[in-house]
Amino acid sequence: MIKIERVNKWYGSYHALVDITEDVAKGEVVVVCGPSGSGKSTLIRTLNRLEPIQSGRIVVDGVDAYGRHVKLNAFRSRIGFVFQQFNLFPHISVLENCTLAPTRLRGLKPSEARDEALTLLDRVGLAAKARAYPGELSGGQQQRVAIARALAMRPPLMLFDEPTSALDPEMVGEVLLVMRDLARDGMTMVCVTHEMGFARDVADRVLFMDQGKVLERAVPSEFFARPEHPRLRQFLSDIRTPFLQAA
Amino acid sequence: MIDLIDTYWLYFLVGQYPHGPLGGLALTLILAVLGLLFAFPLGLVFGIARVSPWRCVRWPVSALIQVVRGTPLLMVIFWAYFFLPSLTGQNTDQFWTMLTALVVFDAAYLAEIIRAGIQGIGKGQTESARSLGFSYLDAMRLVILPQVVRNMLPSLVNQFVATIKETSLGYIIGLTEVSFIATQINTQVLTKPAEVYLLLGLTYFILCFGLSRFAFWLERHHQQRTLAKAHA
């Protein structure tokens, strides 16, 4: 589904992604974790070309993302992207957020788009909020709508860029629940997240990034039980003992 | 003062109409409304061009806007008055000259209001629209601009207030808007300049103050709505 080959990215002289090579198979759930500034968000944003790269190749669903003849808009419409800050459109209702792209880009009739959107909103548990505006929802609800909005384009692949990092702790669970549900349905997913419980339970593979490099990749059981790279051991012990760190 | 109003009120309001061209306060208002009406779409296009990712669009429009904003309106009117006929080969009457000048001038100011509005929306909105597969222009049209226009409604009313006052410069090219008419009345009455110009000033003030209050109300209303939503 995704092939990343020797990808490099610089911000000025800062080497943000260093020779990244990864594959994601169809139906696979890959969690990317790492300390802040490690390049994990940058990496996921290169997958739908929100960020330019300076060298290498990324092929998603058979399309060379940075190829010269790629139809960028059609390419992006087949990749669901969920942002840390939700980024719902505040001037239109929840339902309209979910029907805007399908009617304009998939050519659905308004009634069809509406039915599909309501099904999706029901799936994320928010059919009752269809007529509300994003500003009237809690963070967790907004993020669930954002997931429904992305799903409305029927993408074969979903990317999540720290989907729970901007949420109050009590709302993290409801969003992860929706993501688990998606994973169970066989959706191909790449998630940048700090939710280690989610990584352990749902991921097929976990990647650890630091300083623009993927330092370790393993199935969750190996990843948490037998971390090889010293930097990963450090990272895992840091997130397990937040109290000691604060002291 | 009362007899002044009694004698000249109709002349003040509509000029020589219906026995001559429409003038006075009516002409002032028509000019301001049409000026803003035409300037708005132009300002929208200019504002979008100002933040365009394409340099060949951004640079010439930015240059034009800077030139107009760096010039007094009187200058723009003179250009329209003397330059436009030599360009089109036709004599343009005062009304269209003034309207052209107003539209160009206001469009430059509106463009900056719209540019600020677009830049205030935050790039997350564009990114999420683009991620869904919308083109740059669709993202602008469907996601960014509706939010910008709603946010800038108070500024739009304020720009209308400015435009009303700007029409008084039409006096300089002999346009029979309300200031010109007031001067005509003053010439006829001769003895009461203070009263005549007090009335003229009051007319502008009532109009503009009323609209300013309206803009203020819009702003507060908008704020409250946003706050109410945020706390809901």
TrEMBL record, chain A:
It comes from Candidatus Accumulibacter contiguus. Residues 2-236 form the ABC transporter domain. Keywords: ATP-binding, Cell membrane, Membrane, Nucleotide-binding, Transport. It comes from the Bacteria. Belongs to the ABC transporter superfamily. GO terms for molecular function: ATP binding. Pfam families: ABC_tran (PF00005). SMART domains: AAA (SM00382). InterPro entries: AAA+_ATPase (IPR003593), ABC_ATPase_HisP-typ (IPR030679), ABC_transporter-like_ATP-bd (IPR003439), ABC_transporter-like_CS (IPR017871), MetN_ABC_transporter-like (IPR050086), P-loop_NTPase (IPR027417). This is Amino acid ABC transporter ATP-binding protein.
